[in-house]
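User: Could you go from structure to sequence for me? I need the amino acid at each position, not a summary. Structure tokens:
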């Protein structure tokens, strides 16, 4: 690290800007300051702290009696699967019947466990696939096997958590079979499947076929509108804000529990608002219904309710989809599982694949218990474990196996690898956060000198602020990096404005979109916007503002009317509609944003995206359910020469799931940071933190560095103990770094 005073001043200024309560170690007086200019930034015998750590020294997380009973019940269910596991005998694996008719040699293309998972197609099947075990490959070959076995593709339902995953499975299946049969499979995310189904069967379900899907931000705006109209914002207490209310409503629906239950579990300070929030929730439901609006949760709830209450519809769905495959089953919520169960009741040919050790989305309603209780839901199910790992070497697997098998709940797995590289994970404790950052960046540069590309290296952290010092160090050395995240393409105001116009073109009753667009017309405020929306309702959706042309905003409003009515023409393409709306919007954007020319380029991206769509409804649904990735990161990352060095990745654990790198660094491993201090009072949260640590560690293919500063202080909290997840695994599974010894 170049530690001349000017660099030091810049770094301190950076820290003070992004960490308001930051004090340099030289003034904090807590521990010795980070040493500069010595040529050795890692002085001190902190490795001895790691050698002495014992799990008995950590405060135990309290477990209430009902939680303990639930744990014991789930342990019993999970333990019962051993009797259901299909144990392959490699020399006695059954060949497919009429093997000669199959193009693919399944027996020799897959390992024994993968083969059983791919070819066991009748009845319920649970596939427990560990990290890096070739789960996607198995699903692809299973899809091909179904098609080669004569199953009509229209009878296959493939559900994934990303559109990309579904597309990859179908594309690679088509490549294997050298035909287009797989293209006819119904596949996609749960929300996309629900959207397609509800629109297709709208008459049968008494639903409006032209409903509009609103995203989370739109949902929050509706909540805020109701919050204001019902005068909750004027209470003498601090009534919760729109984003918190929307989160509570969504959590209650995803977990299938009442509002008061969510408040009792996670928001006890808001319990006094229980009745008001229940009233607001009902008003929110009625508002959406009146305006033909569906939020993401509506798609799930409406489909589940229809399957439950409409017997002819349920039988139609059961007859249509006789073979169901579900990817990442550990991430499903209660409602999604109910949807699957209703459809699967017909043929019972349902295969779910997942890894309970990678269930890390409880915050969005994922129910960890779904995968554990699958054998209880389907008592006749078979179980296949896929444990051969193709990502990491055995020393890394010894460490990650130890993490997973310390879980209170879960299926026991013993991942193994043919790669016997003898390099254990490195655990290092450094004097402070600056020293930790310097250590991480030094190791990154060492790897680069050894020929490891920067883009095959990742720093994975539990919380964004854990990367502050590392980003500072990377900046000071002009090392290129990208932070996964940033401002999403779909969240930019100009993109949301154009999309709002398109939504009005599709559904003139879309009050949320009208509320957004009317406010960009000069001279129109909330009151006037509400009156205009009432007029549109009275005119049965007809856009005619001729009665307002004499108002000061009249001319601008007529321009909006003209653009929308032109875009409503049925004889023009979706892309042409975007072009019409862009021509209307460009002069407005110029008055709003100094960088309007750059923003107009984003609208050009939107135009390009729409060129492949014939249906505007399909485009808007896809855009809402599976939005395009971020186009730009909008950060001052010093990409000094991207042709020479593609940037390394800085990412949260949640964003890293499903990815892999040659070398992975997991920083800030102090108890209270990882696991988070909030999890140290709740067993369920602590278990999810352990799974997060497992996911972070299992992203590494060859090298894993686990680091921590000697201390961390924030407000009245002070942490010095290494993460309990390290203390509870055997020390022979990792190597403690000592600066006086070679690695």
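Assistant: Here is the amino acid at each position, in order:
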């Amino acid at each position: 690290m170049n530690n001349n005073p000017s660099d030091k001043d810049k770094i301190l200024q950076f820290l003070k800007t992004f960490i308001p309560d930051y004090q340099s170690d030289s003034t904090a007086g807590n521990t010795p300051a980070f040493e500069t200019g010595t040529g050795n930034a890692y002085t001190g015998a902190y490795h001895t702290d790691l050698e002495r750590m014992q799990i008995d020294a950590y405060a135990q997380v309290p477990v209430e009696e009902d939680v303990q009973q639930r744990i014991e019940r789930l342990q019993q269910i999970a333990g019962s699967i051993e009797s259901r596991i299909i144990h392959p005998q490699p020399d006695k694996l059954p060949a497919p019947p009429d093997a000669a008719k199959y193009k693919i040699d399944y027996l020799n293309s897959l390992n024994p466990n993968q083969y059983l998972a791919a070819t066991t197609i009748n009845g319920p099947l649970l596939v427990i696939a560990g990290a890096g075990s070739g789960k996607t490959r198995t699903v692809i070959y299973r899809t091909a096997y179904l098609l080669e076995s004569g199953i009509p593709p229209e009878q296959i339902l493939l559900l994934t958590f990303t559109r990309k995953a579904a597309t990859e499975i179908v594309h690679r299946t088509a490549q294997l079979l050298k035909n287009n049969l797989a293209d006819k499979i119904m596949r996609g995310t749960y929300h996309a499947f629900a959207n397609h189904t509800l629109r297709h069967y709208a008459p049968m379900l008494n639903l409006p076929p032209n409903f509009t899907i609103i995203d989370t931000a739109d949902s929050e705006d509706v909540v805020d509108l109701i919050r204001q109209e019902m005068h909750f914002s004027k209470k003498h207490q601090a009534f919760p804000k729109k984003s918190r209310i929307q989160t509570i409503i969504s959590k209650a629906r995803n977990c299938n529990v009442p509002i008061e239950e969510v408040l009792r579990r996670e928001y006890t300070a808001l319990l006094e608002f229980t009745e008001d929030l229940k009233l607001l929730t009902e008003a929110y439901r009625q508002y959406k219904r009146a305006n033909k609006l569906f939020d993401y949760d509506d798609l799930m709830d409406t489909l589940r309710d229809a399957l439950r209450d409409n017997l002819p519809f349920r039988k139609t769905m059961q007859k249509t989809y006789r073979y169901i495959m579900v990817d990442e089953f550990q991430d499903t919520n209660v409602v999604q599982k109910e949807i699957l169960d209703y459809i699967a009741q017909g043929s019972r040919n349902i295969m779910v694949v997942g890894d309970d050790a990678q269930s890390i989305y409880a915050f969005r309603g994922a129910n960890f218990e779904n995968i554990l209780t699958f054998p209880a839901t389907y008592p006749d199910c078979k179980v296949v474990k896929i444990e051969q790992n193709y990502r990491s070497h055995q020393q890394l697997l010894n460490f990650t196996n130890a993490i997973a098998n310390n879980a209170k709940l879960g299926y026991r797995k013993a991942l193994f690898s043919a790669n016997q590289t003898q390099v254990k994970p490195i655990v290092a404790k450094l004097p402070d956060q600056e020293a930790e950052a310097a250590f991480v960046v030094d190791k990154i540069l060492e790897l680069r000198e050894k020929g490891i590309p920067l883009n095959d290296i990742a720093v994975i952290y539990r919380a964004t602020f854990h990367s502050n010092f590392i980003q500072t160090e990377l900046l000071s050395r002009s090392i290129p990096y990208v932070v996964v995240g940033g401002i999403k393409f779909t969240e930019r105001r100009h993109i949301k404005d154009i999309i709002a116009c398109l939504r009005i073109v599709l559904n003139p009753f879309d009050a949320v979109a009208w509320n957004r667009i009317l406010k960009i017309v000069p001279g129109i405020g909330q009151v006037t916007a509400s009156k205009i929306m009432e007029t549109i309702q009275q005119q049965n959706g007809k856009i005619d503002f001729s009665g307002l042309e004499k108002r000061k905003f009249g001319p601008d409003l007529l321009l909006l009317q003209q653009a929308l009515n032109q875009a409503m023409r049925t004889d023009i393409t979706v892309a042409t509609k975007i072009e019409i709306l862009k021509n209307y919007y460009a002069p407005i954007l110029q008055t709003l944003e100094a960088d309007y020319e750059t923003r107009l380029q984003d609208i050009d991206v939107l135009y390009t995206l729409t060129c492949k769509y014939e249906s505007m409804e399909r485009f808007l649904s896809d855009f809402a359910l599976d939005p395009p990735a971020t186009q730009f990161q909008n950060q001052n990352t010093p990409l000094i020469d991207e042709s020479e060095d593609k940037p390394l990745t800085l990412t949260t654990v949640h964003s890293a799931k499903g990815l892999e790198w040659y070398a992975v660094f997991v920083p800030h491993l102090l108890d209270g940071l990882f696991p988070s201090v909030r999890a140290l009072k709740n067993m369920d949260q602590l278990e999810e933190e352990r799974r997060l640590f497992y996911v972070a560690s299992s992203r590494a293919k060859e090298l894993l560095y686990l680091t921590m500063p000697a201390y961390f202080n924030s407000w009245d909290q002070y942490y010095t103990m290494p993460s309990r997840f390290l203390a509870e695994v055997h020390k022979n599974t990792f190597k403690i770094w000592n600066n006086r010894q070679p690695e």
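One structural detail worth keeping in mind: The longest strand covers residues 700-709.
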